[in-house]
Amino acid sequence: MIEPRRDVALMDGYHSPQVEVEVRLNTNESPFPAPAEWVTEAQALVASIAWNRYPDRTATELRTSIGQLHGVGPEQVFAANGSNEVLQTLLLTYGGPGRVAAVWEPTYALHSHIARITSTGIAEGERATDFTLDLSEVQRVFEQDRPSVAFLCSPNNPTGVVDDEATVRAVLELAIIHDCLLVVDEAYGQFAPWSALELVAEDVPLVVTRTYSKTWSMAAARIGYLVGPCSVVAELQKVVLPYHLDAFKQAAGTLALAYVDEMNRRVAAVVEERGRLMDRLAALPVEVWPSGANFVLFRPLGLDGATVWQELLDRSVLVRNCSSWPRLEGCLRVTIGTPEEDDRFLAALEEILR
Questions:
Q1: In the chain, how many domains are there?
Q2: What's the pTM?
Q3: Which of 76, 147, 261, 352 is the most buried (most CB within 10 A)?
Q4: How does DSSP classify residue 196?
Q5: 211 and 142 share a domain?
């Protein structure tokens, strides 16, 4: 039997545990189901699709609708099967053998994982002790490793830290100087106080990625996109596989954009619940990091994080164990759920820490 590429064979995959529990707070999904009206309309769409025909190869209607949401034309929007396919297509286009992608740890593991899959080199910088970006360290990576692509995740996963506008502008200036494409991953951007979408322009090497998985209650649909210069989008369209977005996905994603007001209400509810959860955690023997996302990173004090994770699981509450991520020994990440789910998590955690 033929062997896989050696570098792939040595890789660990990226996985979140999928186990049956009563309270699932480990993958940062929306705690709310999709709007009932959207479900009804989406079901009707199924009957209207010409299933014997290929879908619109360029997903024009979906990209136009996304563009209208952000005040740009469809030529500035690239849509794909979740934001991870967006990231993969970016690295297939602008990375590859002989090129380097820069990340600053701890951050979203898929940035490095997809780089490895696409045979792109990785330049790893360090975030500051509070997990904010250290601009001197960012500059060091640019000057030493000359990346072709640089990733910022803001709000950062798994820490929740938001990179402020001045910081992102400073990184963008370095990217311009060093002829690098800056990718700001805003999978959780709707929960944050500002967005790098404000900085996107035709003559700026910046793209911002988003996903339907969190705020739109559509994790099952796998839709993601980026907004960036027309020239970048045109190059991505050359690389992505033909007909990669099926007809139902395109129609469902377009339909969801008619529910912006409902999405905004959900975001507001999650942000309010995030504040309540963080207040409760602050009263417990745990270290908690500020978050601009729909999750909170914390580290139990006096108990091993893996032990606390298992104890929560034994109580049918699933959170994310981040202990294996760089510099996150003993850390756990909890998704903001419904008030009832969060109360169940807090009660279990309080019992364990006692």
A1: 2
A2: 0.94
A3: 147
A4: G
A5: yes
Six token digits for residue 335: 């998704």
Given a contact cutoff of 8 angstroms between Cβ atoms, the answer to whether 104 and 153 are in contact is no
Q: Tell me how far apart the alpha carbons of residues 137 and 109 are, in angstroms, rounded to a whole number.
A: 19
User: Rounded to whole angstroms, how far apart are CA atoms 178 and 200?
Assistant: 18
Does residue 1 form part of some domain? no
Task: For 307, list phi and psi in degrees, rounded to 5.
Answer: -65, -45
pLDDT tens digits along 59-103: 999 999 999 999 999 999 999 999 999 999 999 999 999 999 999
Backbone angles phi, psi at 153, to 5 degrees: -110, 115
DSSP string of 274-297? HHHHHHHHHTSSEEE---SSSEEE
Residue 10 shares a structural domain with residue 72: no
What CATH number should be reported for the domain holding residue 74?
3.40.640.10
Cα distance between residue 169 and residue 330, in whole Å: 33
Q: Which amino acid is at 347?
A: A
> Cα–chain-centroid distance for residue 250?
20
Most distant CA pair in the chain, distance: 60
pLDDT in tens, 122-170: 999 999 999 999 999 999 999 999 999 999 999 999 999 999 999 999 9
